[in-house]
Structures are given as C-alpha cells and as structure tokens.
Amino acid sequence: MKPQVEIYDTTLRDGAQGEGINFSAVDKLRIAEKLDSFGVHYIEGGWPGSNPKDMEFFQQAAKRKWKNARISAFSMTRRKGVAVEQDELMRLILEAKTPVVTIVGKTWLLHVTEVLRAKPDENLGMIGDTIKYLKDHGKQVIYDAEHSFDGFADEPEYALATWQAAEKAGADCIVLCETNGGRLPGEIAKTVAFAKSQLSCPIGIHTHNDCGFGVANAIAAVEAGAMQVQGTINGFGERTGNCNLISAIPALQLKLGLRCVPEKSMPRLKELSEFVNEVANIRHDVRAPWVGQTAFAHKGGMHVHAIERVARSYEHINPERVGNFRRVLVSDMSGRTNILMKARELGFKLSPEAPETREITARVKELEAAGYEYEAAEASLALLIRGTLDHNPELLFTVDTYHVSMRRDKKESICEATVKVRVDDRISHTVAEGDGPVNALDGALRQALIKFFPKLKNVALTDYKVRIINGTTGTGAKTRVLITSSDGKREWGTVGVSENIIEASLQALVDSMEYALLKK
Asked: CA angle, 109 as apex, 158 and 163 as ends, to 5°?
C-alpha cells in the first residue's frame, strides 16, 4: 500500500489571516463541509476566544457529523507565569469541544528571550505543561513548533530541546513551521531529516510562501520524512500566503505516488479551488498550476501540432485527473492545427486541406494584427468560422444606426442610447438610459432585439474589459473591448476593436447577441 501523508487544512484560520480574506461563520461551515467531502484529514476551524465567528463555528461544528476530517481548534501554550489549569486560553480551547487541538509554541531562542521575554527553561515548561494538560483531557494534540527552521539555524540544541519537550509531554505530531517563508528546500530537507532522526513521534511541515517556495518546501519536507502537510486552499494566508494545498496534494499524490486524499476526489480538485475562491469572493487565478484556465492551454502552433498527435508531449498529466480540461488558443501565432482543433472544440468540422481552413487561418492572423484577440473571445471566433464556412450567411439582425449621448440632470450625469435594429423587413427603434454609455447601449440593443428574440431576456453582460492597443497615439489610440456574457447556463466572450470605444463596444455586444441566438 502507498505511504500515507496526512493533509491538515488551515484555510479557516491561517488562510483567513490573509489580506482581503474574510469568512463568516456560515462561510467557514460551508468550506469545512467541502473539505470533509474532499477527504482531508484535519480541518483547523480557528482560534477559540479570538473572535465571535470562530466560537460560533465550533458550536455548530460540534453538532455535525464529519465523514473524513477531524476538526481542530488552535491556540498557544500557556502564558508565562500562569499555571496551565488557571489559563483562560485552556478553558476556551476545551470549550470548543474539538477532538483535536493544535498548540503553537516558541522554537527560536530569539523569540523566547526578546518577544516572549521568558527564560529558555521557562519556555520548555510552558510547552510541556500545555501539551500534558490537553492530553490528560483526552485531546489529540498537534504541536506547531513556530520558527523551527530559523531557530534551528541559530541554536540547534535549543530548537531540538523544544521539540523533545513536546514529544515527552505526549504530542501526537510535531509540526516544524517555516514561519518566515525565507528558507530554501535544501535547508528544509536537512532540518526535517535531523528532527526525524532524533524524535519518535510523527513529524509534519507548515510552510509559508514568501520566497515562492511554499509548496516546494513542503514537498522537500515530505521527501525527508514528514508525514503531515499543513496548508491552505489556493495558498491563502499571511503576507504572500501559505503552502497551497491545491498544488501540494496533486504533487504528492500524482507525482510522488503517496496517499493524500481518496482517488475519487482528485477530479474534484479544480472544483474545490473555485468553490473556496467563490466563498472568499476572490477571482480565480487563471494561471494557477493544475487548476487554472491556462494550466492546459496551448497557443504556439508547434505545441498544438504536437499535442494533437501525442497529448503528453506538452502536458505533464491528463488534465481530467484534476478536473481541468485542455484548451487550444487561437491567435496570430496560430497554425492550421490550432484552427482545426479549436473549430472542433467549438463544434465545427474542418478539413486540413480545405480552402476555408486556410482562409480562416489567414483571417485570424489579419484581425489579430489589427488588434483583435480571440483567446478570451471564443464566441466571436465561432461567428467568424461560421461566416466563412457558410460563405457569409444572412445576418439574424443588423444595427442600422445608433446614437449615444450624455446629459447633466441636476447633480447626476445620465447616459442615453438610441438604437435602430433591422430584422428582415421589420425595424425596432428603442431608447435606453444607463450608468454609462456602454450600459445604455447594451440596454437599448437588448430592448430592440427582445421584441423579435424573447430568449435574449436571459442574456446578461457579466464582465467588460477595455485595453488600449497602441497607447503612443494618445486619445486617438485603438481600443479593444472584451465582453463576457451569460444566459445563466453558459458563458461566452466576444471582442470588438475600433478607435472609438463605443463602436468597439457595439461590435462586441452585437457578436454576443448573435452568438446567444445560435442553436449550436
């Protein structure tokens, strides 16, 4: 059987300490349930007594049955000069009623003397007293040895003494914390290997990402003998974040062949990453390893040509293994293979030697050179391919005229758009107001078309981006507009380019509406 590495998730505590991250008690419960379903071993819910949300989480968590994970409450060793039985922190940690308690203590002598302002022996007593007290109360105790690697580099004998104090008191696992995020994988491996040679209890690793090595350092620790990895979903956390479990889990399970989570959970990795981002109200990182939109996207013609024949020639795993999928991008760097594979993805049948294939390839390169971009505008690309294959089919509608103006009404600026649309021989002439010129134009176009195409009631503009293409020409610069639309079931992107931002926006809006009306 493959060796087991425990996954300890601290998204709800350490992750919530990241800038811009704020979870309600309900948010924490939703994420915890998702993590439990995914199959992590431990879920750290927070620090009892630090805030009302954490106490509410623990109260609710105690009423639930958890299928895979054990809930842990986090706190610190008893305070200096206070007996463990009289320490308020111990009362609060027991009131959380979690089966697991994680205690953080000082390893670095600098912190003991200068921050804690305690004597070295006193700190050892604080570690031992706290762990023994919690063990006597029936808790599984995980000891987080803060600043383990800085402390070991400065005073290795004292660092070892703190770990041994925790082990002697009965700690179930001693986690070496790379708290400052400044150590390299080689240093991590050497220190973990030394600790493993001196201790009998299991060793874990907790890393931060200040140098970009959060995941690499965790992997190095496991290769040196650590059997528990602490981290957060999507790398949330203090400063630049913690070890990203979304990257660490597949690296451990798919690359090192270790057991982390159930095999059936791995295809849900992307879903888990996106879920936590959504709850945190954070936009998903399109370039995230393993689960990002571009993780298996191919643009260069040589790359696309190769993956069509042998996918693994430019992909380190099958993307479906982590719930992702392959994407072929089309741009001015595209060859015919890009066009063929992208057309197939969009539902079109193209032959490599067909004149239409060469025509589409040439047209894409021409338009990209003029400022169009089809990577995020696949709907506009689909319309271009359709138009070429059908030899310029009759349009579903045309915009005969439009006008956009702005007026001042008391203290408000109001934008107004007028659109005249033709469908066959019928004409619709509408006016709409909006927060800005594009919002007004979108409203007027939609009102004009809904009379003929009621299904467009469900279409909404969900994102709008503007990029200046040739900024050296000042206010006369060419503008690219990218629009994302949705009908509640699917999303699609369209593009427009013009020296006039309103004209570019109208192009993208027209493409969006036309694409929404296509059956396929």
From this structure: 40
Residue that is written with structure tokens 């493993």 in the block? 196
| Class in CATH terms, 370-386+460-520 | alpha beta
According to CATH, where is 3.30.160.340 located in the chain?
A: 370-386+460-520
Look at residues 60, 74, 101 and name the one whose alpha carbon lies nearest to residue 15. 74
What is the strand order of the sheet 479-486 is part of? Answer: 460-468, 479-486, 491-498
pLDDT tens digits for range 133-173: 999 999 999 999 999 999 999 999 999 999 999 999 999 99
- Rounded to whole angstroms, the Cα distance separating 209 from 182 reads 8
CB atoms within 10 A of CB 466: 12
When computed from its CA atoms, the radius of gyration of the chain, rounded to whole angstroms, is: 29
Burial call 5-34: b when 16+ CB within 10 Å, e when fewer: bbbbbbbbbbbbbbeebebebebbbbbbbb
Q: Are 506 and 442 in contact (CB under 8 A)?
A: no
User: Over the range 401-417, which residues count as b (16 or more CB within 10 Å of their CB) and which as e?
Assistant: ebebeeeeeeeeeebbb
User: For 64-108, how does the pLDDT look when each residue is reduced to its tens digit (9 = 90+)?
Assistant: 999 999 999 999 999 999 999 999 999 999 999 999 999 999 999
pTM of the model: 0.74
Q: Where are the alpha helices (DSSP H) in 281-349?
A: 301-309, 336-346
**Architecture of the domain defined by 397-452:** 2-Layer Sandwich (3.30)
Question: What SS3 state is found at 17?
Answer: helix
Q: Is there a contact between 47 and 55 (Cβ–Cβ < 8 Å)?
A: no
Q: Specify whether the CB–CB gap between 159 and 152 falls below 8 A.
A: yes
